Each structure stands twice: as structure tokens, then as C-alpha cells.
């Protein structure tokens, strides 16, 4: 059985190198990003949320998109991929995220 990994906003901040207030701003501007909330009302990010956040960061910081441009690009990407392509991309992204999380753990 697969364990669902969820991250709090502090951990997301550390992994992505993006401040929490920036992540919350992205959530308000990009409707595709809707993390769940736990019973205390705190944001809980799934692997899919982490993939989307990584893509948003790439579009904004590397490709120099505006937030509006990134939102439009994400909608375009979501509409253009075939179901098989989306499944493959999701699998690859998930594997990369697992590797990235594994590298970020402190060694004892």
C-alpha cells in the first residue's frame, strides 16, 4: 500500500526555497493550486501540490513569467496533454520529487 506523503507549509518552504507568504500568494492567484487543510486549518501539501509548486517556481523564476502568464501556461499545459502523457509526466515528477526529498534529509 502506498503511503501518502503530505508536507506542511514550513517544509514546503524549506524544500522549494520559497517563503511561505509567497506560496500563499500563489495559491490566491493560481486556482489550480488548492492544498488541503488539516483538522486545525493548516495547509497540507500532497506530492501533486509539490509538483505544481515546483512548476510555478520554474515558470516564475527561470522562465521569467508573470504570475498571470504562469497561470495561463499551466492551464494551457493541462488542456494540451493526452491522458497517457499526463500519467507519464505525473509518474516522472513523483519519482523526481521523491529523489529530491531524499537528498534533502539530514544525515546522522
Protein architecture, described:
There is one protein chain. By secondary structure, the protein is mainly alpha-helical. The protein has a single domain (9-103), classed as Multidrug-efflux Transporter Regulator, Chain: A, Domain 2 (Orthogonal Bundle). Helix content is 64%, strand content 4%. It contains five helices and two strands. It has helices at residues 9-16, 20-29, 47-62, 67-80, 83-103, and strands at 36-37, 43-44. It has a two-stranded antiparallel ribbon. The longest helix has 21 residues, at 83-103. The chain starts with 8 loop residues before the first helix and ends in a 5-residue tail after the last helix.
Biggest β-sheet description: 2 strands, antiparallel
Q: Count the helices. How many? A: 5
- Form type: globular
Helix proportion: 55-70%
Relative strand content: under 5%
CATH architecture identity: Orthogonal Bundle
Q: Within the largest sheet, what's the order of strands?
A: 1-2
CATH hierarchy, class: Mainly Alpha
Order of helices and strands: HHEEHHH
Helix/strand/pairing class, anyone? mainly alpha
* Average pLDDT score: 87
The radius of gyration computed from the alpha-carbon positions, rounded to a whole number of angstroms, is 14 Å
Show unreliable segments: none
Q: How many distinct domains?
A: 1
**Distance, first to last CA:** 28 Å
Return the CATH topology.
Answer: Multidrug-efflux Transporter Regulator, Chain: A, Domain 2
Strands, count = 2
